[in-house]
Amino acid sequence: MKQILTSRVYEAAIETSLDEAEALSQQLGNRILLKREDQQPVFSFKLRGAYNRISQLSLAERRKGVITASAGNHAQGVVFAANQLGIRAVVVMPVTTPLIKIKAVKRYGGEVTLHGNNFSEAAEKAARLTRESGMVFIHPFDDELVIAGQGTIGDELLRQNPGPLDAVFIPVGGGGLIAGVAAYIKELRPEVRIIGVEPRDSDAMARSLEAGKRLLLPEVGVFADGVAVKQVGRLTFTLCRRYVDDIIRVSTDELCSGIKAIYQATRSIVEPAGALGMTGLLKYIRESGCSDQTLIAINSGANMNFERLRYVAERTLIGEQQEALFAVTIPETRGSLKRFCHDLVGDRNITEFNYRLSSREQAYIFVGISISHAAERAEFGRRLNAAGYHNLDLTDNDLAKNHIRYMVGGRSTEVGGERLFRFWFPETPGALVRFLDGVGGERNISLFHYRMQGGDFGRVLIGLEGGGRGEGELEGRLDRLGYRYQEETANPAYRLFL
Questions:
Q1: What is the pLDDT of residue 102?
Q2: What are the b/e assignments for 92-105, b being 16+ CB within 10 Å?
Q3: Torsion angle, CA of 396/398/403/406, rounded to 10 degrees?
Q4: CA–CA dist 454, 483 (Å, integer)
Q5: Fold of the domain built from segment(s) 2-40+144-316
Q6: Domain spanning 321-396: which CATH class is it, in words?
Q7: Do 91 and 79 meet the contact criterion of CB atoms below 8 Å apart?
Q8: Is 300 a catalytic residue?
């Protein structure tokens, strides 16, 4: 508490506004407020903790400078703070870091060292440089002064909203933000529920709290890259065990709908991690059915690549439970498509329709339909079954949503022994060449699909024909390559359409 109240963050950061989402509040029957950390000079709350830590260095430490490893908002917070204080700052970033983020760090006066293909390798390099140079390492979350700096948001919330407050929804990565805010609010207003929000594929804090100890995730998702942390901090875990009431996990589709909700309320476009608080708040209302409560979501940042907006828009309807995707087998007879649309789709809008002749007896269609709630999706599947149409609900199938919907009709009778893999390629020049060199020339690439989505990693679908040495040897090559991958050969959407 004392460290939060004596924090020096306001020498660089600003007190951000607490805005009511009036239309959303009326629609959902609760008072919904948004804490606007996107208003900070670096468009993220990270400046608070970084400045508080760096500003309290000794004169000897300031002369040596500071160093950190980061590819995101923490890097910008560190270099901005160091620049304000006239201190040298070095940031180690993976070589896969997009140029836009490298330029942002340099714009704020930081020195960039590129090393490794992921954050872990960059962090190891930063640790070596710290030992060799004597520079001070600024941890992104597991540091008392960093946590205290983030905790000033809690002080602002209670001053800006002195009346009723039921719950605060906070994005969780390594845990610095939620630890600081929770510690402050719970000391003064213990009745306020502190609810963290994590992506389902980056839920290190939720899993650790459930296990009663810090866990190391084998891999994390790439969409909400601002919270893609494999292991939470020791300090943050201890504080969260004491002060956090619950953690809500959300899907990528739900997160896209959260981005849209913030845009409609404020006309600001936040990054995926920045929308976690709002996404969790909306899910909480939907699942609990609460009303007449005062709920606050923290928008933690708005460093969004413009190119990602297309992907966000495509996934928003599913996240809002306004769209369902189905694979449907229809007879290849005259009038069958008309009967399908007239008798089953009815007055629903068709959001997407993909078809290609499969045989003279039957055809597979990939169709998207508008729905008003989740129960309607299940009801549509039951109606298809009752009418004798074999169908598969693909609404939660990532392979279908990321690739198949753009590739319907790609079957080939010439391919033999094909295995299908999804890869996450770093969005850097030479990524494909590295893949080809790593896999070797013994297997033919029989299928390839990539579509730019504006993130740090591109989602790539690749088919490899059998051949060469044993199948275990292929997995060995892929593991050594270092790209995250997942086999999809058994995925029913692949069997139907590709």
A1: 86
A2: bbbebbbeebbebb
A3: 20
A4: 18
A5: Rossmann fold (3.40.50)
A6: alpha beta
A7: yes
A8: yes
The answer to whether the beta carbons of residues 90 and 69 sit under 8 Å apart is no
Using DSSP's 3-state secondary structure scheme, residue 21 falls into coil
pTM here is 0.80
What percentage of the chain carries pLDDT values higher than 90? 54
Catalytic residue of the set 7, 208, 300, 446:
300
CA dist list (Å): 388 to 122, 331, 384, 403, 496: 56, 10, 6, 28, 17
Q: What is the pLDDT of residues 368-405, one digit of tens each?
A: 888 888 888 999 999 889 888 889 999 999 888 888 87
Active site residue 35: no
CATH of 46-137, one of 3.40.50.2300, 1.10.1040.10, 3.40.50.1100, 3.10.20.600: 3.40.50.1100
- 83 by Cβ neighbours in 10 Å (0-12 / 13-18 / 19+) ranks as middle
Q: Which long-range contacts link 213-222 to residues 24+ away (Cβ below 8 Å)? A: 219/484, 221/252, 222/424, 222/455, 222/456, 222/457, 222/484
Q: Tens digits of per-residue pLDDT, 74-124?
A: 999 999 999 999 999 999 988 867 677 788 899 999 999 998 876 778 888
Catalytic residue chosen out of the listed positions 46, 125, 260, 401: 46
The domain spans of the chain are 2-40+144-316, 46-137, 321-396, 419-497
Whole-number Cα distances in Å, 122 to 105, 112, 118, 208, 246: 15, 11, 6, 24, 32
Q: What is the DSSP letter of 409?
A: T
Q: Tell me what the mean pLDDT of segment 152-164 comes to.
A: 97
Residue 357 has pLDDT above 70, yes or no: no
pLDDT tens readout for residues 223-247: 888 888 899 999 999 999 999 999 9
CA–CA separation, 190 and 180 (whole Å): 14
- Lowest mean pLDDT segment, chosen from 50-59, 205-214, 325-334: 325-334
257-279: pLDDT as tens digits: 999 999 999 999 999 999 999 99
Q: How far is CA 273 from CA 137, 152, 172, in A?
A: 24, 20, 8
Q: Are strands 419-426 and 445-450 parallel, antiparallel or unpaired?
A: unpaired
